[in-house]
Amino acid sequence: MKMKSSLAPGIRLITNFSRDSWYRGFILILTFLFYTAYHLSRKPISIVKSELHRNCSNVIQPKDINITNNVTWCDWPPFDQDNYQTLFGVLDNCFLVAYAIGMFFSGIFGERLPLRYYLSVGMLMSGLFTCLFGLGFYWNIHSLGYYAFVQVMNGLVQTTGWPAVVACVGNWFGKGKRGFIMGVWNSHTSVGNILGSLIAGVFVSTAWGLSFIVPGIIIACTGVLCFFFLVEKPEDVNCSSPQHHSGQERSQEGGETAPLLRDSAIVDPSINGAVSTEPDVIVEEHSEAISFFGALRIPGVVEFSLCLLFAKLVSYTFLYWLPLYISNVAHFEAKEAGDMSTLFDVGGILGGILAGLVSDYTGGRASTCCVMLVVAAPMLFLYNNIGQRSLGTTIGMLLLCGALVNGPYALITTAVSADLGTHESLKGNARALSTVTAIIDGTGSIGAALGPLLAGVISPTGWNNVFYMLISADVLACLFLSRLVYKEAQRWCGCGPRARGFNEL
Question: What's the domain of life for this entry (predicted)?
Fold first, then answer.
């Protein structure tokens, strides 16, 4: 007893956690870092846009350069043309369309290949193509085809990230406070965007090629880290596997039902990384995968998929065009615009956590998303009209808009996907969970491709029209949730059974 009481507080804290808990924490941190690196390497293109096409009349002309055009002499061909915004939209769309198409197939490969190898190769290849874009600066490449090809290839290899990370987390973690835990874990997207913006901003005004090369090296190094340290399954290191309640037994014990789905089983959040502290009955495994149309018949899948399409359209338009908008409207330099745009992602972190907490407490996933989207629409209008009046206003509006736009997006891609992937007809089929998740994320990726493309086409007519497009997308996202919001309102008013499964924290 004397030896035990003399232990340092830090050592006592360490010994309070089991070996399994340390491994699970280690895997959670690793997967967080991996997907942070993926998003970190996607961000530079949005920062560099304002450097590829600049207002050359405000730039000091070097004496040793023979200048024939005072308007475009400092631009990087082919982006020195009047349709430069359309060309930027082409580059964005090359990446996002390839990503949307590849996402539907990436999960198939991820299920059949060792996750450690699949993730490692994916990150190494992502690093390669990210660096190749930056090397265009040093190789003096001015071909749109070259940059478009690199974007297409990078979009394809980037699809290795989400399915593999989700599968790995699913091997290690059972169930817990889905909304909150997933909201915190899902902040890797915003953290990656922030770090990508800051790193790219350091080099954008001096040698924009390094804005791609440095993030490319970072994600490649993360791939090496994955190869040496990722443990795919608990059994590989003699840890216990996570266990889950069966939906039938859980409902018999507590009468609990999942939100949105009146007849659904309790969610198996294995695809989202929620932490479990209560091992119970193991869900029966099924080898037969659900069909595509079978997954579409699950109540809520179509509505949330279409909602995510428009929610992700808004989010990714900001991801790719916000720095250029700030640079054009507020007349910031490229680095300053990039740094300022990170506030949108900071707001996104807070919004994702807030959405998870509120939906956990109320049991209303659809209502939480709908309220945030409804409030986001007028906030986008206000940001476009008064957001640049002062520095304080800009900071406040960016934080608020980031929370309202990214909150529903984060909730749908994590906790909602888990809700919808565990309808009682699926009976815990993990392959069915993957199919439902692929449908929701794949549909959202279509919106992610459309948003930046539309912004590139519309922006030459004025930034006001771009914001009208974003506000319209927000409204459409709300409309697709109206049926589910009505059902949740009925339940709260006592017209239907109240869901308890996600309210118990």
Answer: Eukaryota
CATH of the domain at 334: 1.20.1250.20
Q: Which residues span the domain enclosing 127?
A: 18-55+74-238+289-493
- Residue 468 within any structural domain of the chain: yes
Query: What are the tokens at 300?
Result: 């809520």
Identify whether 4 is part of a domain. Answer: no
At a CB cut-off of 8 Å and minimum separation 6, what does 466 contact? 317, 321, 325, 454, 455, 458, 459
d(CA 229, CA 379): 44
Which residue matches tokens 């459309």?
450
The answer to whether position 254 is within a domain reads no
pLDDT digits (tens, 9 = 90+) for 226-266: 999 999 888 888 888 765 444 443 443 333 334 443 333 33
What is the pLDDT at residue 251? Answer: 40
Number of structural domains found in the chain: 1
Rg (CA), the chain: 24
d(CA 26, CA 29): 5
Structure tokens given for 238: 């003699």
> What does pTM read for this prediction?
0.75
Separation in Å, CA 375 to CA 138, 351, 379, 400: 45, 13, 7, 10
In a domain, 334, yes or no: yes
**Structure tokens that stand for 456 in this block:** 């590139």
344, pLDDT greater than 80: yes
